[in-house]
């Protein structure tokens, strides 16, 4: 990947994320007027704000990089010819968003056949902009980020789960983490919790089944902040959910053993 390619897309992703965040925040402040629909499950919701924000992002990307592919939570896959794909979650953390909580964000990544090239996560309520590019480091509002120096017990661990995984297995995972002495927390958005691993606010994050648009930007941040991540499928595999795990280097191996996600995307 040419250095300028990543730099150009990082600059664009930052500008687009800020615009998308402004629109999302505007809708957030008037959320009582939003039309909300249920998708697969009573806890799996989508609002008109999700779709409007993703449309803004897609149009901006298409204008700037018309040959790049796009994969988004609300509008699916659009093909490209450049070998790069923008992976978009317009509002990660829709449930907290709709309930007036600050734990949501805009997540934008650019990936190639090797994984994330660029990652940008913007949390408008918190006014926190996380940015990373391959080989270029990770930053929060322009300040360099570094993952924690320590093991699984060096800080809080972020966890996530959803209705697509067996509840008994999630309970077993949480019990195993507690038995290992890890203190865990869940805070609305998986993408934002991955960013917090890069920022040293969490020792790690684990979720047994997650989509690419929820994790690729966070993975870019963690890698550039000196942490470790579980590999996520590339190419056509980006369209399928898979286990996600990212942690500071000292916690990663133990977290892998405890969670025991194995090789199956169905866990």
What coarse outline follows from CA principal-axis ratios?
A: globular
Strand content: 25-35%
Tally of helical runs: 7
CATH architecture call of the largest domain: 2-Layer Sandwich
CATH class division of the largest domain: Alpha Beta
Could you give me the name of the CATH homologous superfamily of the largest domain? Fructose-1,6-Bisphosphatase, subunit A, domain 1
Task: Decide which structural class fits the backbone.
Answer: alpha+beta
Biggest sheet details: 8 strands, mixed
Count the strands? 15
Total separate domains: 2
Structure summarized in a few sentences:
With 267 residues, the protein is an alpha+beta fold.
Overview of the molecule:
- The protein is of the alpha+beta class and 267 residues long.
- It has two domains: 3-144, Fructose-1,6-Bisphosphatase, subunit A, domain 1 (Fructose-1,6-Bisphosphatase, Chain A, domain 1, 2-Layer Sandwich); 157-259, 3-Layer(aba) Sandwich (D-Maltodextrin-Binding Protein, domain 2).
- The protein is built from seven helices and 15 strands.
- The protein has helices spanning 3-28, 48-64, 94-98, 167-179, 190-198, 212-224, 249-259, and strands spanning 36-38, 45-47, 69-72, 76-78, 85-92, 105-112, 115-123, 128-133, 137-140, 143-144, 157-159, 184-185, 204-210, 228-229, 242-247.
- Strands 4-3-5-6-7-8-9-10 form an eight-stranded mixed sheet, with helices on both faces.
- Strand 6 (105-112) and strand 7 form a beta hairpin.
- Helix 1 (3-28) runs antiparallel to helix 2 and helix 5 (190-198) packs parallel to helix 6.
- The longest helix is centred in the N-terminal third of the chain and has 26 residues, at 3-28.
- 48% of the residues are buried.
């Amino acid at each position: 990947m040419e250095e300028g390619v990543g730099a150009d897309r990082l600059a664009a992703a930052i500008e687009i994320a800020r615009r998308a965040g402004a629109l999302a925040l505007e809708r957030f402040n008037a959320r009582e007027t939003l039309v909300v629909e249920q998708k697969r499950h009573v806890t799996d919701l989508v609002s008109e704000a999700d779709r409007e924000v993703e449309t803004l992002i897609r149009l901006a990307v298409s204008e700037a990089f018309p040959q790049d592919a796009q994969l988004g939570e609300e509008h699916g896959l659009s093909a490209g010819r450049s070998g790069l794909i923008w992976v978009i979650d317009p509002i990660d953390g829709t449930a907290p968003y709709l309930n007036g909580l600050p734990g949501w964000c805009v997540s934008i990544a650019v990936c190639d056949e090797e994984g994330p090239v660029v990652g940008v996560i913007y949390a408008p309520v918190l006014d926190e902009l996380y940015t990373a590019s391959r080989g270029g480091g990770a930053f929060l509002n322009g300040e360099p980020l570094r993952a924690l120096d320590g093991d699984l017990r060096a800080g809080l661990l972020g966890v996530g789960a959803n209705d697509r995984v067996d509840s008994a297995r999630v309970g077993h995972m949480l019990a195993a983490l507690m038995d290992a002495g890890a203190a865990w927390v869940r805070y609305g958005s998986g993408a934002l919790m991955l960013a917090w691993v890069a920022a040293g606010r969490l020792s790690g994050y684990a979720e047994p089944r997650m989509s690419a648009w929820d994790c690729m930007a966070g993975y870019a941040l963690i890698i550039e902040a000196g942490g470790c991540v579980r590999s996520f499928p590339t190419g056509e595999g980006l369209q399928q959910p898979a286990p996600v795990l990212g942690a500071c280097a000292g916690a990663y191996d133990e977290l892998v053993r405890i969670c025991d996600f194995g090789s199956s995307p169905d866990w």
